Amino acid sequence: MTSRSQFVLPGAKQVNVYADAGALADAVSQRIAELVQACVAQQGVCRIALAGGGTPQQCYEKLRGLSLPWANIHIYFGDERCLPAGDAQRNDDMAMRTLLQHVPIPAEQVHPMPVELGAEEAALRYAQELAQAGALDIVLLGMGEDGHTASLFPNNPALESIAIAVAVDDAPKPPPQRVSLGMATLNAASHKLFLVAGSGKRAALQSIAQGEQLPAAQVLDAEWFMDEAALPNRI
């Protein structure tokens, strides 16, 4: 890990910088393993929400090689595209291919968003499921070049919703209909981990560092893991 104590993100619990995306994925997978083990030891179960995207995918590939108490883990998702079940562009499909089908987790402990039913119905059902489960223990998050996280985009009404899970319309990236955990749900999680890699993220990180309230900046007390390429001005 590279020390970048002079780079500060308002509201962040910690900022960690690594040489490249591979080193970042190694570090996050180890951090997840540490948190899961502690959570299961303390309460017998760990509820974790996974993220989509290329950087989390590298992390999942690392994570499947670690020894974790999979029988005590419940998997949720931070957001999902409204696409048919089994579509390769769905986050749950990527997670299944890269992680879940390689580890001994009971199928009933994987909780996909039922987005094939439509955004409104899926958000309602997922909110009910999460209300019964309780607050999440770990949430993994990415950040888009516009500063969005999960499927909470700048200036989108879903960002202001207080619902546990929200229907997202008119997303600026295809498909336009999605379901996302609400901002309050993200903030209620015990541990929030951001995975941010690549030069395309520099502008958003710079804006957040300067105090702009992009969606990712509204997740408080998060641990940020980023690579050197993402640092504004290569600080």
Describe this structure as you would to a colleague.
It is a single chain. This protein is an alpha/beta fold. It has one domain (31-202, 217-234): 3-Layer(aba) Sandwich (Rossmann fold), CATH 3.40.50. It has six helices and nine strands, in the order βαβαββααβββαβαβ. The protein has helices at 21-43, 54-63, 91-98, 119-133, 183-188, 202-209; strands at 14-18, 46-50, 73-77, 79-81, 138-141, 165-168, 178-181, 191-196, 223-227. The strands form two sheets. It has a six-stranded parallel beta sheet with strand order 1-9-8-5-2-3. It has a three-stranded antiparallel beta sheet with strand order 4-7-6. The longest helix is centred in the first third of the chain and has 23 residues, at 21-43. The radius of gyration is 17 Å and the shape is globular. The model is unreliable at 1-5 (pLDDT under 50).
Mean pLDDT: 94
| CATH fold name | Rossmann fold
Strand content: 15-25%
Structural class: alpha/beta
- Terminal residue distance: 14 Å
Reported CATH architecture: 3-Layer(aba) Sandwich
Ranges where pLDDT stays below 50 over 5 or more residues in a row are 1-5
Number of helices: 6
CATH class: Alpha Beta
Would you report the number of β strands?
9
SSE order: EHEHEEHHEEEHEHE
Task: Please compute the radius of gyration using only Cα atoms.
Answer: 17 Å
Oligomeric state: single chain
Strand order of the biggest β-sheet: 1-9-8-5-2-3
User: What shape does the CA trace take?
Assistant: globular
The major beta sheet can be summarized as:
6 strands, parallel
Provide the helix percentage: 25-40%
Number of separate domains: 1
